[in-house]
Amino acid sequence: MAEDLKITDRVVIPDSELRERFSRSSGPGGQGVNTSDSRVELSYDVERSQAIPDELRDRVLERLGHRLTGGVLTIAASEHRAQLANREAARERLAALLREALAPPPPPRRPTKMSKGAKQRRLQAKKHRSAIKQLRRGSHD
């Protein structure tokens, strides 16, 4: 199953840069839950990777800084009973996380002023609402 992980058209992580660790899962498994190592921990060293271009690496390190431990991103998957399914889930999750971190930042917001008409409509709606609530009040004399 050793194949490269495609993140974007420009970024493909070679399988040699991914490390997998297997352990016993606490999730579903029936009789085999205590005997099979179905939990997968997928680790990827973002800091030392040659797959990510330098200009994009800084963006990834900044956006995923809270998830990195010594520059290494680790994803754990244990939701399936089969080790192969957990391996696929971990790879998909890693790809989605990196794809999101590699995305360019959104364009800066240009602040705009509220138009006079919009301001008047807003104030009119507030006055109307206030009048409705005023009518609900009974005279408490």
Written account of the structure:
This protein is an alpha+beta fold. Helices cover 36% and strands 18% of the residues.
The gist of it:
Residues 18-40, 99-141 are annotated as: Disordered. The protein has a domain at 5-102: 2-Layer Sandwich (Double Stranded RNA Binding Domain).
Tally the beta strands: 6
- Class per helix and strand makeup: alpha+beta
**For the report, how would you describe the main beta sheet?**
4 strands, antiparallel
Helicity level? 25-40%
Strand order of the largest sheet: 3-4-6-5
CATH class of the domain at 5-102: Alpha Beta
Low-pLDDT ranges: none
Q: Characterize the overall form.
A: elongated
What is the average of the pLDDT values?
85
What's the architecture of the domain at 5-102 in CATH terms? 2-Layer Sandwich
- End-to-end Cα distance: 83 Å
Computed Rg:
26 Å
Count of helical stretches: 3
What is the CATH T-level topology of the domain at 5-102?
Answer: Double Stranded RNA Binding Domain
Q: Approximately what portion of the residues adopt beta-strand conformation?
A: 15-25%
What's the helix-strand series?
A: EEEEHEEHH
